[in-house]
Amino acid sequence: MSSLICDDGVRIDFTCTGDPAGRPVVLLAGFRAPATSWLYQIGPLAEEGLNVHAVDLRGHGTSDRPTSGLTMERRGQDVAAVLEQLDLHDVLIVGGSMGGNTIWSYLSQFDAERLGGIVTVDQTPKMLNTADWAHGYYGYDESNADTYFAEGIPPTGHGTPVMKRGRRLLRLLKAMKGVDRKISRGELALLNDHAKADWRPVIEGCDVPVLFIAGAESEHWPCSHAAASAALAPIGSSTVIPDDGHAANIEQPEAFNQILLEFAGSP
After folding, report:
1. pLDDT below 70 — which residues of the chain?
2. Residue 232, domain CATH
């Protein structure tokens, strides 16, 4: 485990695996998820000669947990700190869930000079359902925009029930081991900030190749968000993984890794 210090003194932890001379891959986990949620990707990516960085952004995993200042804007700034302090270039940056929209937060504040490719994993760029976007969080619309995520992540009744996922559930439990079930007030503020954002304009202005991956059985939103998002991007593509939920990289790691490596240009 290595660390770096952001401009406000917060420590961010990360791991580096694979060939230091290989193409850098930066893995950003989702809401409350630790960097270890990429455990099914780190080894296979490193074996292909890639230089893999799994990052715990502030408030996640072993990194510092400030009681305030948890915003999507700050998460984007933390990504900048990682890329700049490690002096990474031609980065394949991969974001799962909120980690995906964290990439758009980064690009809303900084240029794409250090990036060579972007992958988002089952994350719609706009969670609020409106007349011009029907690919948001199930049941979340303008009538409940201020209250829907006030207490946590509401169940939707969509996707395969957790207890019926078999090996997919076992993988989830292993990857998310040690995550506290209780959501703090600061984390709730971050969740609401995340839920109200609209990153579509950032996608439209992105000149980096982007792959949008969706789980066919996502419990949060329809998998149609991937194709709709790809249609916004100047260099966009999308794919849907069958028999897969929101944690697409965890539930179906073999299929996910193959897709990711093909996008990265590895054999």
Report:
1. 162-163, 172-174, 178, 266-267
2. 3.40.50.1820
